[in-house]
């Protein structure tokens, strides 16, 4: 079966009744966040706004909704009628589509992502036309699917990220998401963020002339094999974030506020910490803290207004 490249193609694969279900979900999301971009990610219809807002997919007996683990945790009480996992919700096909709930999930993610800045990977693409053409030619020769993630084209195999590329001001790079497992016989791969990047490795070029299609293809074939062999670095359990800066100072000065903050769930605490940390200006941080103080004292989360 040919790779799906847009939502229309995905929906067209199903019979009329199922197409109607998918179109209903699609319409709900578009109506809720008209500025979101529509694409295919993980071979599913996806809506993005500075990150993934929501994915959805149709199966034999259920509609799958994928808003991410944070949204599912936040709305866990409203999701009790449905089967859920860490990042997925299953809506049986014999039940009505919960349009209001889908709208809440999307709005929740929209607000969570609205302060997030995304890198413009294509800012310098114009000056790297020859390099892009060379690399795309090789990628298109391999059994890879092209998906749109994080503002750029990502090539996947079996739903797993394999490689991507980008042109920058002073160099062009191909990155391999599982690059740590590659033999790297030419000794060309580097970790872009030493000490932080676990699996991803980059191959950088100063000009298009340096790009050897044969060598690149060899590295890509090996990268595909790492997916087939199921090689991966298991993610480390993250340490819960603690308040810092102005939020920490504010909590320290107000014992009642500190107690109320400590009683919040880890998810709600994280929402508030990220809400303050994403503000760049001190005056914005101060304004946000004044906004959230009464909510914290009432035991509410930042996004509870979207819950019943």
**Low-pLDDT windows of residues:** none
End-to-end distance: 43 Å
Shape label: globular
Supply the number of helical segments: 10
Sheet having the most strands: 6 strands, antiparallel
Average pLDDT metric: 87
- Bin the helical content: 25-40%
Secondary structure class reads: alpha+beta
Order of helices and strands: HHEEEEHEEHHEEEEEEHHHHH
Supply the CATH class of the largest domain.
Alpha Beta
How much of the polypeptide forms β-strand, as a percent range? 15-25%
CA radius of gyration? 22 Å
CATH architectural type of the largest domain: Alpha-Beta Complex
Descriptive report:
It is a single chain. The protein is α+β, with helices and mostly antiparallel strands. The protein has three domains: 7-113, Aspartate Aminotransferase, domain 1, CATH 3.90.1150.200; 125-228, Aspartate Aminotransferase, domain 1 (Alpha-Beta Complex); 245-306, no CATH class. Helix content is 38%, strand content 19%. The protein is built from ten helices and twelve strands. It has helices at residues 7-12, 16-32, 69-74, 99-113, 129-139, 213-228, 245-253, 255-263, 266-277, 282-297, and strands at 37-41, 44-48, 52-58, 62-66, 83-84, 89-92, 145-149, 152-157, 160-167, 172-176, 189-190, 201-205. Strands 1-2-3-4-6-5 form a six-stranded antiparallel sheet. Strand 1 (37-41) and strand 2 form a beta hairpin. Helix 7 (245-253) packs across helix 8 (255-263) and helix 9 (266-277) runs antiparallel to helix 10 (282-297). The longest helix is centred in the N-terminal third of the chain and has 17 residues, at 16-32. The protein is globular.
